[in-house]
Design a protein that fits this description.
heterodimer, A: 409 residues, globular, B: alpha+beta, 2 domains, 7 helices, 4 strands
Protein backbone atom coordinates (compact mmCIF):
# COMPACT_ATOMS: atom_id res chain seq x y z
CA UNK A 1 0.00 0.00 0.00
CA UNK A 2 1.39 3.37 -0.88
CA UNK A 3 1.89 6.03 1.75
CA UNK A 4 -0.41 8.99 1.36
CA UNK A 5 0.00 12.36 3.02
CA UNK A 6 -3.61 13.52 3.14
CA UNK A 7 -6.44 11.50 4.62
CA UNK A 8 -9.36 10.51 2.46
CA UNK A 9 -12.00 8.52 4.27
CA UNK A 10 -11.97 4.85 3.18
CA UNK A 11 -15.04 3.49 1.46
CA UNK A 12 -17.01 2.35 4.47
CA UNK A 13 -15.77 4.90 6.96
CA UNK A 14 -18.62 7.37 6.73
CA UNK A 15 -21.19 4.61 6.35
CA UNK A 16 -20.04 3.07 9.61
CA UNK A 17 -19.98 6.46 11.33
CA UNK A 18 -23.46 7.37 10.13
CA UNK A 19 -24.89 3.96 11.07
CA UNK A 20 -23.44 4.37 14.55
CA UNK A 21 -25.08 7.79 14.77
CA UNK A 22 -28.32 6.14 13.61
CA UNK A 23 -27.98 3.52 16.37
CA UNK A 24 -27.50 6.38 18.83
CA UNK A 25 -30.58 8.21 17.61
CA UNK A 26 -32.62 4.99 17.71
CA UNK A 27 -31.45 4.34 21.27
CA UNK A 28 -32.43 7.86 22.30
CA UNK A 29 -35.85 7.35 20.73
CA UNK A 30 -36.17 3.96 22.43
CA UNK A 31 -35.15 5.50 25.71
CA UNK A 32 -37.63 8.31 25.23
CA UNK A 33 -40.45 5.84 24.58
CA UNK A 34 -39.59 3.59 27.53
CA UNK A 35 -38.69 6.22 30.13
CA UNK A 36 -38.41 9.79 28.84
CA UNK A 37 -42.06 10.23 27.97
CA UNK A 38 -43.23 8.77 31.26
CA UNK A 39 -44.98 10.96 33.83
CA UNK A 40 -42.91 9.54 36.65
CA UNK A 41 -40.08 12.06 37.29
CA UNK A 42 -37.67 9.23 38.15
CA UNK A 43 -38.25 7.57 34.80
CA UNK A 44 -37.73 10.91 33.03
CA UNK A 45 -34.55 11.43 34.99
CA UNK A 46 -33.27 8.08 33.77
CA UNK A 47 -33.63 9.34 30.19
CA UNK A 48 -31.82 12.60 30.84
CA UNK A 49 -29.16 10.94 32.98
CA UNK A 50 -28.20 8.72 30.06
CA UNK A 51 -27.79 11.75 27.79
CA UNK A 52 -25.90 13.58 30.53
CA UNK A 53 -23.49 10.73 31.18
CA UNK A 54 -22.70 10.11 27.52
CA UNK A 55 -22.40 13.70 26.37
CA UNK A 56 -20.23 14.78 29.30
CA UNK A 57 -18.02 11.72 29.00
CA UNK A 58 -17.42 12.05 25.27
CA UNK A 59 -16.99 15.82 25.48
CA UNK A 60 -14.29 15.41 28.11
CA UNK A 61 -12.66 12.60 26.13
CA UNK A 62 -12.34 14.60 22.91
CA UNK A 63 -11.28 17.59 24.97
CA UNK A 64 -8.42 15.51 26.35
CA UNK A 65 -6.98 15.55 22.82
CA UNK A 66 -6.61 19.30 22.89
CA UNK A 67 -5.11 18.99 26.36
CA UNK A 68 -2.62 16.51 24.95
CA UNK A 69 -1.69 18.89 22.13
CA UNK A 70 -1.31 21.85 24.48
CA UNK A 71 0.59 20.08 27.22
CA UNK A 72 3.11 18.67 24.74
CA UNK A 73 3.41 22.12 23.15
CA UNK A 74 3.96 23.70 26.53
CA UNK A 75 6.62 21.14 27.39
CA UNK A 76 8.28 21.76 24.00
CA UNK A 77 7.86 18.09 23.26
CA UNK A 78 8.81 16.99 19.79
CA UNK A 79 8.04 13.27 19.76
CA UNK A 80 4.33 13.71 19.05
CA UNK A 81 4.83 15.83 15.92
CA UNK A 82 4.60 12.89 13.51
CA UNK A 83 0.99 12.25 14.49
CA UNK A 84 -0.02 15.56 16.08
CA UNK A 85 -2.61 16.18 13.39
CA UNK A 86 -4.61 13.27 14.84
CA UNK A 87 -5.31 14.80 18.27
CA UNK A 88 -5.80 18.12 16.50
CA UNK A 89 -8.47 16.56 14.31
CA UNK A 90 -10.15 14.87 17.29
CA UNK A 91 -10.25 18.21 19.08
CA UNK A 92 -12.19 19.64 16.12
CA UNK A 93 -15.15 17.63 17.47
CA UNK A 94 -15.20 19.70 20.69
CA UNK A 95 -17.57 22.41 19.36
CA UNK A 96 -20.01 19.78 18.06
CA UNK A 97 -20.18 17.59 21.16
CA UNK A 98 -19.83 20.73 23.29
CA UNK A 99 -22.98 22.29 21.93
CA UNK A 100 -24.89 19.02 22.33
CA UNK A 101 -23.63 18.61 25.87
CA UNK A 102 -24.38 22.22 26.86
CA UNK A 103 -27.88 21.91 25.41
CA UNK A 104 -28.53 18.72 27.38
CA UNK A 105 -27.14 20.15 30.61
CA UNK A 106 -29.14 23.36 30.33
CA UNK A 107 -32.26 21.40 29.45
CA UNK A 108 -31.80 19.39 32.65
CA UNK A 109 -31.11 22.47 34.77
CA UNK A 110 -34.00 24.51 33.44
CA UNK A 111 -36.43 21.60 33.18
CA UNK A 112 -39.16 21.02 35.75
CA UNK A 113 -37.68 17.73 36.82
CA UNK A 114 -35.38 18.16 39.80
CA UNK A 115 -34.45 14.49 40.25
CA UNK A 116 -31.00 14.77 38.70
CA UNK A 117 -29.96 18.18 40.00
CA UNK A 118 -32.12 18.63 43.04
CA UNK A 119 -30.36 21.88 43.89
CA UNK A 120 -32.38 23.42 41.04
CA UNK A 121 -35.53 23.06 43.14
CA UNK A 122 -35.76 26.48 44.85
CA UNK A 123 -38.52 25.33 47.25
CA UNK A 124 -36.43 22.39 48.40
CA UNK A 125 -33.21 24.39 48.79
CA UNK A 126 -34.92 26.79 51.18
CA UNK A 127 -35.45 24.01 53.72
CA UNK A 128 -32.24 22.18 53.01
CA UNK A 129 -29.47 23.59 55.15
CA UNK A 130 -26.61 22.01 53.22
CA UNK A 131 -27.84 23.07 49.79
CA UNK A 132 -28.59 26.50 51.15
CA UNK A 133 -24.93 26.83 52.10
CA UNK A 134 -23.89 25.75 48.64
CA UNK A 135 -26.21 28.21 46.90
CA UNK A 136 -23.36 30.49 45.87
CA UNK A 137 -21.88 27.71 43.76
CA UNK A 138 -24.84 25.54 42.88
CA UNK A 139 -27.26 27.92 41.21
CA UNK A 140 -28.70 28.11 37.73
CA UNK A 141 -27.03 31.35 36.66
CA UNK A 142 -23.54 30.24 37.64
CA UNK A 143 -24.08 26.85 36.05
CA UNK A 144 -25.27 28.39 32.78
CA UNK A 145 -22.50 30.94 32.57
CA UNK A 146 -19.76 28.43 33.37
CA UNK A 147 -21.10 25.81 30.98
CA UNK A 148 -21.43 28.16 28.03
CA UNK A 149 -18.15 29.93 28.74
CA UNK A 150 -16.31 26.63 29.05
CA UNK A 151 -17.55 25.19 25.77
CA UNK A 152 -16.89 28.51 24.05
CA UNK A 153 -13.34 28.89 25.38
CA UNK A 154 -12.41 25.29 24.64
CA UNK A 155 -13.68 25.66 21.09
CA UNK A 156 -12.07 29.01 20.41
CA UNK A 157 -8.68 28.23 21.94
CA UNK A 158 -8.68 24.81 20.27
CA UNK A 159 -9.48 26.45 16.95
CA UNK A 160 -6.60 28.87 17.50
CA UNK A 161 -4.16 26.01 18.19
CA UNK A 162 -5.26 24.15 15.05
CA UNK A 163 -5.09 27.30 13.01
CA UNK A 164 -1.55 28.01 14.25
CA UNK A 165 -0.54 24.49 13.31
CA UNK A 166 -1.94 24.78 9.79
CA UNK A 167 -0.75 28.32 9.18
CA UNK A 168 2.81 27.20 8.31
CA UNK A 169 1.88 24.25 6.12
CA UNK A 170 2.57 26.15 2.92
CA UNK A 171 5.00 28.75 4.20
CA UNK A 172 8.15 27.24 5.69
CA UNK A 173 9.75 29.23 8.47
CA UNK A 174 12.97 30.40 6.91
CA UNK A 175 15.06 31.75 9.76
CA UNK A 176 15.81 30.64 13.28
CA UNK A 177 14.18 33.79 14.66
CA UNK A 178 10.94 33.07 12.85
CA UNK A 179 10.93 29.54 14.24
CA UNK A 180 11.56 30.78 17.76
CA UNK A 181 8.78 33.29 17.41
CA UNK A 182 6.45 30.58 16.10
CA UNK A 183 7.22 28.27 19.02
CA UNK A 184 6.75 31.14 21.45
CA UNK A 185 3.36 31.98 19.97
CA UNK A 186 2.32 28.33 20.22
CA UNK A 187 3.50 28.22 23.82
CA UNK A 188 1.47 31.28 24.78
CA UNK A 189 -1.77 29.98 23.27
CA UNK A 190 -1.22 26.51 24.69
CA UNK A 191 -0.62 28.03 28.11
CA UNK A 192 -3.87 29.98 27.84
CA UNK A 193 -5.68 26.78 27.02
CA UNK A 194 -4.08 24.98 29.96
CA UNK A 195 -5.19 27.77 32.30
CA UNK A 196 -8.77 27.41 31.07
CA UNK A 197 -8.47 23.64 31.26
CA UNK A 198 -7.22 23.68 34.84
CA UNK A 199 -9.97 26.05 35.93
CA UNK A 200 -12.57 23.79 34.32
CA UNK A 201 -11.86 20.06 34.04
CA UNK A 202 -9.18 19.99 36.70
CA UNK A 203 -11.14 21.91 39.31
CA UNK A 204 -14.69 23.17 39.10
CA UNK A 205 -16.43 21.65 36.11
CA UNK A 206 -16.86 18.01 37.24
CA UNK A 207 -18.18 19.36 40.55
CA UNK A 208 -20.83 21.29 38.69
CA UNK A 209 -21.73 18.81 36.00
CA UNK A 210 -21.35 15.47 37.76
CA UNK A 211 -20.77 15.78 41.49
CA UNK A 212 -23.79 18.03 41.95
CA UNK A 213 -25.97 15.04 41.09
CA UNK A 214 -25.16 13.94 44.62
CA UNK A 215 -25.59 17.52 45.78
CA UNK A 216 -25.14 16.85 49.49
CA UNK A 217 -21.97 14.92 49.09
CA UNK A 218 -18.64 16.39 48.13
CA UNK A 219 -15.10 15.33 47.44
CA UNK A 220 -12.28 17.67 46.50
CA UNK A 221 -10.57 14.83 44.68
CA UNK A 222 -13.50 14.31 42.35
CA UNK A 223 -12.30 16.62 39.59
CA UNK A 224 -8.82 15.18 39.38
CA UNK A 225 -10.30 11.75 39.35
CA UNK A 226 -12.60 12.73 36.49
CA UNK A 227 -9.72 14.34 34.66
CA UNK A 228 -7.59 11.21 34.98
CA UNK A 229 -10.49 9.12 33.74
CA UNK A 230 -11.05 11.22 30.65
CA UNK A 231 -7.39 11.84 29.89
CA UNK A 232 -6.55 8.15 29.80
CA UNK A 233 -9.55 7.53 27.54
CA UNK A 234 -8.51 10.50 25.41
CA UNK A 235 -5.05 9.06 24.90
CA UNK A 236 -6.63 5.70 24.11
CA UNK A 237 -8.79 7.42 21.48
CA UNK A 238 -5.71 9.05 19.92
CA UNK A 239 -3.98 5.67 19.88
CA UNK A 240 -7.01 4.10 18.16
CA UNK A 241 -6.96 6.72 15.41
CA UNK A 242 -3.19 6.40 15.02
CA UNK A 243 -3.48 2.63 14.60
CA UNK A 244 -6.40 3.05 12.21
CA UNK A 245 -4.50 5.53 10.03
CA UNK A 246 -1.36 3.41 10.17
CA UNK A 247 -3.32 0.37 9.00
CA UNK A 248 -4.68 2.37 6.09
CA UNK A 249 -1.25 3.44 4.92
CA UNK A 250 -1.02 6.91 6.42
CA UNK A 251 1.32 8.42 9.00
CA UNK A 252 4.50 7.31 7.30
CA UNK A 253 6.79 8.56 10.06
CA UNK A 254 4.85 7.26 13.03
CA UNK A 255 6.28 3.94 14.15
CA UNK A 256 6.59 1.59 17.12
CA UNK A 257 8.45 4.23 19.09
CA UNK A 258 5.54 6.67 19.02
CA UNK A 259 3.04 3.92 19.72
CA UNK A 260 5.19 2.85 22.65
CA UNK A 261 4.94 6.34 24.13
CA UNK A 262 1.17 6.42 23.69
CA UNK A 263 1.07 3.02 25.39
CA UNK A 264 3.14 4.44 28.24
CA UNK A 265 0.62 7.24 28.62
CA UNK A 266 -2.23 4.72 28.72
CA UNK A 267 -0.40 2.62 31.28
CA UNK A 268 0.74 5.52 33.46
CA UNK A 269 -2.59 7.33 33.54
CA UNK A 270 -4.47 4.10 34.27
CA UNK A 271 -2.31 3.82 37.38
CA UNK A 272 -2.78 7.52 38.10
CA UNK A 273 -6.54 7.14 37.82
CA UNK A 274 -6.44 4.23 40.27
CA UNK A 275 -4.35 6.27 42.66
CA UNK A 276 -6.96 9.05 42.72
CA UNK A 277 -9.89 6.67 42.74
CA UNK A 278 -8.45 4.81 45.69
CA UNK A 279 -7.39 7.94 47.57
CA UNK A 280 -10.92 9.27 47.36
CA UNK A 281 -12.31 5.93 48.51
CA UNK A 282 -9.85 5.30 51.31
CA UNK A 283 -10.28 8.61 53.11
CA UNK A 284 -14.03 8.18 53.13
CA UNK A 285 -13.74 4.53 54.16
CA UNK A 286 -11.36 5.43 57.00
CA UNK A 287 -13.36 8.31 58.43
CA UNK A 288 -16.59 6.34 58.04
CA UNK A 289 -18.86 9.38 58.39
CA UNK A 290 -22.38 8.61 57.16
CA UNK A 291 -22.80 11.73 55.01
CA UNK A 292 -19.63 10.79 53.13
CA UNK A 293 -20.02 7.02 52.94
CA UNK A 294 -23.47 7.48 51.42
CA UNK A 295 -21.77 7.96 48.06
CA UNK A 296 -20.11 4.55 48.14
CA UNK A 297 -22.99 2.68 49.76
CA UNK A 298 -24.93 1.96 46.53
CA UNK A 299 -21.77 1.77 44.45
CA UNK A 300 -19.44 -0.53 46.35
CA UNK A 301 -22.01 -2.44 48.41
CA UNK A 302 -25.40 -1.91 46.82
CA UNK A 303 -26.88 -2.96 43.51
CA UNK A 304 -24.15 -1.24 41.48
CA UNK A 305 -21.52 -3.48 43.07
CA UNK A 306 -20.95 -5.55 39.94
CA UNK A 307 -20.38 -2.54 37.69
CA UNK A 308 -18.23 -0.86 40.31
CA UNK A 309 -15.79 -3.73 40.73
CA UNK A 310 -15.78 -4.68 37.06
CA UNK A 311 -14.85 -1.10 36.27
CA UNK A 312 -12.03 -1.29 38.77
CA UNK A 313 -10.71 -4.52 37.27
CA UNK A 314 -10.74 -3.38 33.65
CA UNK A 315 -9.44 0.09 34.46
CA UNK A 316 -6.61 -0.96 36.72
CA UNK A 317 -5.75 -4.66 36.81
CA UNK A 318 -6.04 -5.13 33.03
CA UNK A 319 -3.88 -2.15 31.94
CA UNK A 320 -1.39 -2.83 34.74
CA UNK A 321 -0.77 -6.43 33.78
CA UNK A 322 -1.31 -6.27 30.02
CA UNK A 323 0.45 -3.00 29.21
CA UNK A 324 3.38 -3.57 31.56
CA UNK A 325 5.61 -5.30 29.04
CA UNK A 326 7.53 -3.25 26.54
CA UNK A 327 6.55 -5.54 23.69
CA UNK A 328 2.85 -5.10 24.50
CA UNK A 329 3.12 -1.33 24.13
CA UNK A 330 4.74 -1.76 20.72
CA UNK A 331 2.12 -4.18 19.44
CA UNK A 332 -0.68 -2.68 17.37
CA UNK A 333 -3.15 -5.42 18.29
CA UNK A 334 -2.58 -5.15 22.03
CA UNK A 335 -2.75 -1.37 21.97
CA UNK A 336 -6.00 -1.42 20.00
CA UNK A 337 -7.53 -3.96 22.34
CA UNK A 338 -6.43 -2.12 25.46
CA UNK A 339 -7.57 1.25 24.07
CA UNK A 340 -11.05 -0.17 23.53
CA UNK A 341 -11.04 -1.75 27.00
CA UNK A 342 -9.90 1.50 28.62
CA UNK A 343 -12.49 3.65 26.85
CA UNK A 344 -15.24 1.20 27.77
CA UNK A 345 -13.95 0.97 31.36
CA UNK A 346 -13.97 4.69 31.88
CA UNK A 347 -17.34 4.98 30.25
CA UNK A 348 -18.51 2.51 32.92
CA UNK A 349 -16.77 4.69 35.49
CA UNK A 350 -18.93 7.61 34.40
CA UNK A 351 -21.94 5.31 34.42
CA UNK A 352 -21.44 4.54 38.08
CA UNK A 353 -20.79 8.22 38.81
CA UNK A 354 -24.17 9.25 37.44
CA UNK A 355 -26.71 6.47 37.82
CA UNK A 356 -26.61 5.34 41.47
CA UNK A 357 -27.86 8.81 42.46
CA UNK A 358 -30.52 8.94 39.77
CA UNK A 359 -31.79 5.39 39.94
CA UNK A 360 -30.88 4.03 43.39
CA UNK A 361 -33.38 1.18 43.44
CA UNK A 362 -32.58 -0.66 40.25
CA UNK A 363 -29.75 -0.69 37.73
CA UNK A 364 -31.15 0.74 34.49
CA UNK A 365 -30.96 -1.34 31.33
CA UNK A 366 -27.43 -0.55 30.20
CA UNK A 367 -28.11 -1.58 26.57
CA UNK A 368 -29.78 1.77 25.87
CA UNK A 369 -26.87 3.70 27.32
CA UNK A 370 -24.44 1.69 25.23
CA UNK A 371 -26.53 2.54 22.18
CA UNK A 372 -26.36 6.25 23.00
CA UNK A 373 -22.61 5.86 23.52
CA UNK A 374 -22.27 4.31 20.06
CA UNK A 375 -24.08 7.33 18.67
CA UNK A 376 -21.46 9.60 20.17
CA UNK A 377 -18.70 7.33 18.87
CA UNK A 378 -20.18 7.68 15.39
CA UNK A 379 -20.31 11.45 15.82
CA UNK A 380 -16.65 11.55 16.84
CA UNK A 381 -15.69 9.27 13.94
CA UNK A 382 -17.56 11.34 11.40
CA UNK A 383 -16.29 14.76 12.44
CA UNK A 384 -12.74 13.58 13.16
CA UNK A 385 -12.63 12.03 9.69
CA UNK A 386 -13.75 15.30 8.18
CA UNK A 387 -11.18 17.29 10.15
CA UNK A 388 -8.42 14.83 9.25
CA UNK A 389 -9.15 15.21 5.55
CA UNK A 390 -8.77 18.98 5.70
CA UNK A 391 -5.01 19.16 6.25
CA UNK A 392 -1.91 17.08 5.49
CA UNK A 393 -1.27 14.49 8.18
CA UNK A 394 2.23 15.76 8.87
CA UNK A 395 2.88 19.34 9.96
CA UNK A 396 6.02 19.22 7.87
CA UNK A 397 7.23 22.77 8.48
CA UNK A 398 7.00 22.63 12.24
CA UNK A 399 10.45 23.24 13.79
CA UNK A 400 10.23 20.11 15.94
CA UNK A 401 9.30 17.62 13.21
CA UNK A 402 12.78 16.19 12.90
CA UNK A 403 12.82 15.36 16.59
CA UNK A 404 9.79 13.17 15.99
CA UNK A 405 11.24 11.47 12.92
CA UNK A 406 14.35 10.32 14.78
CA UNK A 407 12.46 9.55 17.98
CA UNK A 408 13.68 6.58 19.99
CA UNK A 409 12.40 5.28 23.27
CA UNK B 1 44.14 -15.68 33.29
CA UNK B 2 43.63 -15.42 29.62
CA UNK B 3 44.37 -12.23 27.82
CA UNK B 4 42.40 -10.74 25.01
CA UNK B 5 43.23 -8.21 22.40
CA UNK B 6 40.96 -5.33 21.51
CA UNK B 7 40.97 -2.78 18.74
CA UNK B 8 39.86 0.49 20.33
CA UNK B 9 38.66 3.51 18.38
CA UNK B 10 37.27 6.87 19.45
CA UNK B 11 34.34 8.76 18.00
CA UNK B 12 33.07 12.23 18.77
CA UNK B 13 29.92 12.33 16.67
CA UNK B 14 26.80 10.20 16.91
CA UNK B 15 26.24 10.62 13.19
CA UNK B 16 29.56 8.88 12.55
CA UNK B 17 29.24 6.35 15.35
CA UNK B 18 25.96 4.82 14.21
CA UNK B 19 27.04 3.95 10.64
CA UNK B 20 30.40 2.75 12.02
CA UNK B 21 28.65 0.33 14.38
CA UNK B 22 26.64 -0.97 11.49
CA UNK B 23 29.71 -1.37 9.26
CA UNK B 24 31.71 -3.15 11.95
CA UNK B 25 28.93 -5.62 12.60
CA UNK B 26 28.29 -6.16 8.93
CA UNK B 27 31.96 -6.84 8.26
CA UNK B 28 31.77 -9.63 10.80
CA UNK B 29 33.98 -8.18 13.51
CA UNK B 30 33.15 -9.11 17.07
CA UNK B 31 31.92 -5.89 18.62
CA UNK B 32 32.84 -5.99 22.28
CA UNK B 33 31.10 -2.83 23.45
CA UNK B 34 30.65 0.86 22.85
CA UNK B 35 31.31 3.09 25.85
CA UNK B 36 29.51 6.42 25.95
CA UNK B 37 29.36 9.17 28.56
CA UNK B 38 25.56 9.22 28.38
CA UNK B 39 22.84 6.86 27.14
CA UNK B 40 22.31 7.10 23.40
CA UNK B 41 18.82 6.14 22.27
CA UNK B 42 18.79 3.48 19.61
CA UNK B 43 22.44 2.49 20.01
CA UNK B 44 21.50 -0.76 21.76
CA UNK B 45 19.36 -1.71 18.81
CA UNK B 46 22.11 -0.78 16.38
CA UNK B 47 24.56 -2.96 18.31
CA UNK B 48 22.15 -5.88 18.28
CA UNK B 49 21.92 -6.14 22.04
CA UNK B 50 19.00 -8.11 23.39
CA UNK B 51 16.51 -6.40 25.69
CA UNK B 52 17.66 -6.29 29.26
CA UNK B 53 15.88 -8.63 31.66
CA UNK B 54 16.24 -6.11 34.46
CA UNK B 55 12.55 -5.27 34.28
CA UNK B 56 11.53 -8.90 34.64
CA UNK B 57 13.63 -9.02 37.78
CA UNK B 58 11.96 -5.78 38.88
CA UNK B 59 8.52 -7.31 38.43
CA UNK B 60 9.49 -10.31 40.52
CA UNK B 61 10.89 -8.08 43.28
CA UNK B 62 7.70 -6.00 43.17
CA UNK B 63 5.48 -9.05 43.50
CA UNK B 64 7.67 -10.24 46.37
CA UNK B 65 7.20 -6.88 48.08
CA UNK B 66 3.43 -6.99 47.59
CA UNK B 67 3.08 -10.47 49.00
CA UNK B 68 5.45 -9.76 51.86
CA UNK B 69 3.43 -6.72 52.88
CA UNK B 70 0.01 -8.32 52.50
CA UNK B 71 1.16 -11.55 54.10
CA UNK B 72 2.86 -9.97 57.06
CA UNK B 73 0.14 -7.43 57.84
CA UNK B 74 -2.53 -10.09 57.51
CA UNK B 75 -0.68 -12.36 59.89
CA UNK B 76 0.09 -9.57 62.35
CA UNK B 77 -3.31 -7.90 62.42
CA UNK B 78 -5.62 -10.87 62.13
CA UNK B 79 -3.80 -13.79 63.74
CA UNK B 80 -0.94 -12.68 65.92
CA UNK B 81 -2.18 -9.44 67.48
CA UNK B 82 -5.70 -8.67 66.34
CA UNK B 83 -6.76 -5.20 67.43
CA UNK B 84 -10.08 -3.51 66.83
CA UNK B 85 -9.45 -0.19 65.07
CA UNK B 86 -12.57 1.96 65.08
CA UNK B 87 -14.90 -0.98 64.58
CA UNK B 88 -13.29 -1.94 61.28
CA UNK B 89 -12.93 -5.64 60.52
CA UNK B 90 -9.58 -7.22 61.37
CA UNK B 91 -8.99 -7.90 57.72
CA UNK B 92 -9.21 -4.30 56.40
CA UNK B 93 -7.54 -4.37 53.04
CA UNK B 94 -8.03 -0.67 52.10
CA UNK B 95 -5.97 0.43 55.11
CA UNK B 96 -3.09 -1.78 54.04
CA UNK B 97 -2.90 -0.63 50.46
CA UNK B 98 -0.52 2.30 51.17
CA UNK B 99 1.91 0.07 53.08
CA UNK B 100 1.62 -2.62 50.41
CA UNK B 101 2.32 -0.05 47.74
CA UNK B 102 5.36 1.31 49.58
CA UNK B 103 6.83 -2.13 50.15
CA UNK B 104 6.25 -3.04 46.50
CA UNK B 105 8.12 0.07 45.41
CA UNK B 106 10.86 -0.43 48.00
CA UNK B 107 11.50 -4.04 47.05
CA UNK B 108 11.40 -3.29 43.34
CA UNK B 109 13.66 -0.25 43.62
CA UNK B 110 16.30 -1.66 45.94
CA UNK B 111 16.26 -5.03 44.19
CA UNK B 112 16.68 -3.45 40.79
CA UNK B 113 19.54 -1.21 41.92
CA UNK B 114 21.38 -4.19 43.39
CA UNK B 115 20.67 -6.29 40.30
CA UNK B 116 21.88 -3.47 38.10
CA UNK B 117 25.11 -3.24 40.08
CA UNK B 118 25.56 -6.97 39.84
CA UNK B 119 24.91 -7.04 36.09
CA UNK B 120 27.36 -4.19 35.52
CA UNK B 121 29.71 -5.60 38.15
CA UNK B 122 29.79 -2.41 40.10
CA UNK B 123 30.67 -2.53 43.77
CA UNK B 124 32.53 -0.38 46.25
CA UNK B 125 36.32 -0.68 45.91
CA UNK B 126 36.12 -2.53 42.60
CA UNK B 127 38.29 -0.58 40.27
CA UNK B 128 37.02 -0.40 36.73
CA UNK B 129 39.25 -0.13 33.78
CA UNK B 130 38.52 2.11 30.85
CA UNK B 131 39.72 1.64 27.36
CA UNK B 132 39.80 5.40 27.26
CA UNK B 133 38.90 7.54 30.26
CA UNK B 134 37.36 10.10 27.95
CA UNK B 135 34.44 7.74 27.45
CA UNK B 136 33.18 9.22 30.72
CA UNK B 137 33.52 12.73 29.39
CA UNK B 138 33.15 13.60 25.74
CA UNK B 139 34.10 10.65 23.57
CA UNK B 140 32.38 7.51 22.35
CA UNK B 141 34.75 4.57 22.58
CA UNK B 142 34.26 1.46 20.51
CA UNK B 143 36.09 -1.78 21.35
CA UNK B 144 36.33 -4.67 18.89
CA UNK B 145 37.44 -8.00 20.28
CA UNK B 146 40.13 -9.78 18.29
CA UNK B 147 39.31 -13.40 17.60
CA UNK B 148 41.53 -16.00 16.00
CA UNK B 149 40.42 -14.89 12.56
CA UNK B 150 40.85 -11.16 13.07
CA UNK B 151 43.66 -9.49 11.18
CA UNK B 152 44.72 -6.65 13.50
CA UNK B 153 46.16 -4.28 10.96
CA UNK B 154 43.21 -4.72 8.70
CA UNK B 155 40.83 -4.11 11.56
CA UNK B 156 42.67 -0.95 12.59
CA UNK B 157 42.47 0.35 9.06
CA UNK B 158 38.82 -0.62 8.84
CA UNK B 159 38.00 1.29 11.99
CA UNK B 160 39.92 4.32 10.81
CA UNK B 161 38.04 4.24 7.53
CA UNK B 162 34.78 4.12 9.47
CA UNK B 163 35.65 7.45 11.06
CA UNK B 164 37.42 6.51 14.29
CA UNK B 165 40.38 8.49 15.54
CA UNK B 166 43.23 7.33 17.76
CA UNK B 167 42.77 3.67 16.91
CA UNK B 168 44.88 1.41 19.13
CA UNK B 169 45.35 -2.27 19.86
CA UNK B 170 45.07 -3.04 23.55
CA UNK B 171 45.49 -6.21 25.55
CA UNK B 172 43.34 -6.90 28.58
CA UNK B 173 42.94 -9.71 31.02
CA UNK B 174 39.63 -11.51 30.95
CA UNK B 175 37.80 -12.95 33.89
CA UNK B 176 35.87 -10.99 36.46
CA UNK B 177 36.14 -8.61 33.65
CA UNK B 178 35.27 -5.94 34.90
CA UNK B 179 36.96 -5.95 38.20
CA UNK B 180 40.18 -7.76 37.85
CA UNK B 181 41.61 -6.39 34.68
CA UNK B 182 41.37 -2.92 36.11
CA UNK B 183 44.90 -2.89 37.32
CA UNK B 184 46.90 -0.05 36.00
CA UNK B 185 50.26 -1.52 36.93
CA UNK B 186 49.58 -4.75 35.10
CA UNK B 187 48.49 -2.94 32.03
CA UNK B 188 51.65 -0.92 31.95
CA UNK B 189 53.80 -4.07 32.27
CA UNK B 190 51.91 -5.75 29.48
CA UNK B 191 52.52 -2.90 27.15
Amino acid sequence: MSIRSTFTAPKNYNTVALSLIAIGVLSIIGLWVTSGSSTDPHEQARFWASLLQNSVFFLLVVNASMFFVCITTLAWGGWQMSFRRVPEAISAVIPVVGVICAAILLAIVFGDNHTIYHWTDAEHVKHDEILNYKKGFLNKTFFTVVTILTVLLWSVLGWKMRQLSRSIDDEPLATMDERKKYIFKNTVWAALYIVVFSLTVMSSLPWLWLMSIDAHWYSTMYSWYTFASTFVSGVALIALFVVFLKNNGYLEYTNDEHLHDLGKFMFAFSVFWTYLWFSQFMLIWYANIPEETIYFQPRAHGIYKGIFWMMFIINFIAPLLILMRRSAKRNYGTITFMALVIIFGHWLDFYQMVFPAVSPDKVPNIIYDLGVALGFVGLIMYFTGRALAKAPLLARNHPFVKESLIHHT
Amino acid sequence: MAKKKFIVGNFTDEAVLFPAVKKVRRAGYKLHDVFTPFPIHGLDKEMGLRDTSLHTAGFIYGITGTSTAVGFITWALTIDWAINFGGKPYFSLPAWIPVTFELTVLFAAVGMVLTFCWLCQLAPFVKKDHFNPRSTDDTFVMAIECTSTTNEEEAVKFLQAAGATDVKVETKKTGWWLGNYANEKMRFEQQ
